């Protein structure tokens, strides 16, 4: 096997997604412990202790104690190279979270057992489904009284429209929690109320070696439930999992901790390694000897002392060597990748080599755009365009000081190009309208306009709007639009309508049945 193939087969690149407070930070921290990246639990968490999460670096992140941008953590685990891409956990999350999903090969979805599926899980999940990303589910907080496991599985199947396969099954919960039946490993994992777990093979249970357990009524009832699952439940299919059609479900507690090791071992054994990716010239194999990759995120001023921009690149093929020359597919220009960093926690280490699945941070001399493809040698192709995600919050933006309109325009243009926020122009008034996936993007935008372009900006909310794009093939009749259904153009001069609410949208549909309205979430 070539070195490249060997390296690619070691990579497991994934993101953890969840609704805020479901336990993403706690689980991530557990995994960092497993990977020996940190030594004690409780060091990553920043909100209350005043210490900041390892992945929080921008000033604004410090001020608000949240993680604004996605960072990458990596470590070796058994024979694998694990890359975890962090996503903002705050409810005001942004497009960064969505884009991060284009750079991973699978995701771990955390669900709080006491709550079930929450708004944010659903949004992120939609994107994973759209892109066919394999999803592994960790149902967390089993140490508390939560909802019935069957009930939770049913909800996942109904709401997310995905088949579930419980890899393990809990016995009791909260104070009555005894452990889990590990259906995959054919053993019972006993919860001892501390970090130690006891692994008891099914055979030993049958031999009557653990009477205090087997005579417990909850244990006994659950054993029957598991037998029923084996008989009447869905069959496990790794193929369906890898196609994103079935999700393996694990129960546990990130805090206790319990079930984390079993989850992670099973997950790592099943999670996909980097796959071939679509390009404008066909499919590129991850073990193709020529280097290629795409930029899914650009971040400015991570270090205020340097005022630099870092582009995050997902390697898709070949071998990255520090200092190599690559071609920027969009312009055909050759660039030397002299400064490359692997972003590990708060330190940046120089990367000498990287393979498909790895994420590297490269110095951006203001040359890159989100979605850019970098390739080596003779190739000429681009990776599939990064999808545009429909914004949900819209605001008009103006400069406080009209004398600063030049910097204002420059700032907006650069930040929009960077993908920090989306820009629209009202067709009637030509005013600037910013669209974001979450409120937080406005805070970041305002902060950066002040700090990088020296312009104070003001926002005028136009409320939550529902954006629908018009079919470019159809003639636009401007007289049909007004404040409630605002006609705008996006960066690429496509027309879209910002509807005031569901009612305005439906009214318009009924009265103009011949006009196509395109929902970005439904396409792709
Ligand atoms: P995030 O917002 O998704 O990153 O969630 P955190 O990891 O910050 O967890 C939110 C809260 O839930 C914190 O107070 C955690 O201590 C708590 N938590 C996380 N995992 C568990 C768990 O397994 N059991 C219990 N009881 N609490 C948990």
Please provide a written account of the structure.
This protein is globular. It contains 14 helices and 31 strands. It has 524 residues and is of the alpha+beta class. 42% of the residues are buried. The strands form 6 sheets. It has an 8-stranded antiparallel β-sheet with strand order 18-17-23-14-15-22-19-20. The chain starts with a helix and ends in a 6-residue tail after the last strand. Strand 9 (187-191) and strand 10 (197-201) form a beta hairpin. The longest helix is centred in the middle third of the chain and has 16 residues, at 217-232. It binds guanosine-5'-diphosphate. GTP binds at residues 18-25, 86-90, 140-143. InterPro entries: EF-G-like_DII, EFG_III/V, G_TR_CS, P-loop_NTPase, PrfC, RF3_C, RF3_dom_3_sf, RF3_GTP-bd. Keywords: Cytoplasm, GTP-binding, Nucleotide-binding, Protein biosynthesis.
Average predicted confidence as pLDDT: 85
The secondary-structure class comes to alpha+beta
Overall morphology: globular
Largest sheet: 8 strands, antiparallel
Strand order of the largest sheet: 18-17-23-14-15-22-19-20
What ligand molecules are bound, each kind once?
A: guanosine-5'-diphosphate
Question: What is the topological layout?
Answer:
Blueprint (H helix, E strand, L loop, with lengths): L2 H6 L2 E8 L5 H11 L24 H6 L7 E6 L2 E6 L9 H6 L5 E7 L6 H13 L3 E6 L8 H12 L2 E4 L1 E4 L7 E4 L4 E5 L5 E5 H5 L4 H4 L2 H16 L5 H5 L3 E6 L8 H11 L6 E3 L2 E3 L7 E9 L8 E9 L1 E3 L3 E4 L5 E3 L3 E5 L2 E4 L2 E3 L3 E5 L9 E3 L17 E7 L5 H14 L3 E5 L5 E5 L3 H14 L3 E8 L1 E5 L14 E5 L5 E5 L2 H10 L5 E2 L6
Parallel strand pairs: 1-3, 1-4, 4-5, 5-11, 6-11
Antiparallel strand pairs: 2-3, 7-8, 8-9, 9-10, 12-13, 14-15, 14-23, 15-22, 16-21, 17-18, 17-23, 19-20, 19-22, 24-26, 24-27, 25-26, 25-29, 28-30, 28-31, 29-30
Guanosine-5'-diphosphate binds next to helix 2.
């Amino acid at each position: 096997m070539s070195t490249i193939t060997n390296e690619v087969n070691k990579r497991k690149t994934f993101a953890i997604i969840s609704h805020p407070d479901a336990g993403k930070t706690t689980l991530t921290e557990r995994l960092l412990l497993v990977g020996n990246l940190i030594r004690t639990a409780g060091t990553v968490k920043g909100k209350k202790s005043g210490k900041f999460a390892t992945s929080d670096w921008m000033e604004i992140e410090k001020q608000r104690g949240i993680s604004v941008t996605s960072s990458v953590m990596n470590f070796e685990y058994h024979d694998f190279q694990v890359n975890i891409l962090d996503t903002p956990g705050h409810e005001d999350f942004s497009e960064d979270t969505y884009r991060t999903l284009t750079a991973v090969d699978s995701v771990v979805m955390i669900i709080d057992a006491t709550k079930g599926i929450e708004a944010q899980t659903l949004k992120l999940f939609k994107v994973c489904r759209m892109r066919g990303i394999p999803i592994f589910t960790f149902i967390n907080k089993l140490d508390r009284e939560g909802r019935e496991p069957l009930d939770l599985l049913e909800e996942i199947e109904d709401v997310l429209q995905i088949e579930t396969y419980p890899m393990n099954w809990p016995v009791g919960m909260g104070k009555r929690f005894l452990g889990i039946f590990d259906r995959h490993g054919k053993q019972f994992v006993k919860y001892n109320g501390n970090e130690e777990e006891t692994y008891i093979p099914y055979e030993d249970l049958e031999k009557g070696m653990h009477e205090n357990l087997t005579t417990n009524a909850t244990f006994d009832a659950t054993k029957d439930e598991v037998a029923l699952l084996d008989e009447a439940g869905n069959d496990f299919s790794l193929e369906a999992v890898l196609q994103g059609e079935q999700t393996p479900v694990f129960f546990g507690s990130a805090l206790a901790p319990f079930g984390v090791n079993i989850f992670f071992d099973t997950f790592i054994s099943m999670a996909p390694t980097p796959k071939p990716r679509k390009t404008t010239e066909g499919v590129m194999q991850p073990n193709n000897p020529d280097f290629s990759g795409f930029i899914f995120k650009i971040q400015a001023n991570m270090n205020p002392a340097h005022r630099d921009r870092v582009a995050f690149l997902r390697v898709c093929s070949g071998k990255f060597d520090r200092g190599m020359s690559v071609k920027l597919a969009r312009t055909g220009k050759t660039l030397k990748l002299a400064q490359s960093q692997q972003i590990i926690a708060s330190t940046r280490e120089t990367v000498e080599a990287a393979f498909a699945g790895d994420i590297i941070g490269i110095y951006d001399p203001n040359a890159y755009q989100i979605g850019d493809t970098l390739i080596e040698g003779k190739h000429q192709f681009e990776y599939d365009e990064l999808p545009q995600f429909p914004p949900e919050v819209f605001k008009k933006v103006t400069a406080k000081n009209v004398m600063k309109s030049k910097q204002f325009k420059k700032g907006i243009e650069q930040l929009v190009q960077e993908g920090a926020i989306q820009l629209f122009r009202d067709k009637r008034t030509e005013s600037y309208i910013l669209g974001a996936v979450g409120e937080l993007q406005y805070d970041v935008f305002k902060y950066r306009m002040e700090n990088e372009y020296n312009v104070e900006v003001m926002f005028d909310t136009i409320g939550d709007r529902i954006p629908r794009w018009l079919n470019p093939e159809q003639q636009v009749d401007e007289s049909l639009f007004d404040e409630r259904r605002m006609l705008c153009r996006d960066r690429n001069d496509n027309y879209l309508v910002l509807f005031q609410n569901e009612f305005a949208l439906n009214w318009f549909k009924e009265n103009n049945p011949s006009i196509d309205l395109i929902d970005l979430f439904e396409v792709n």
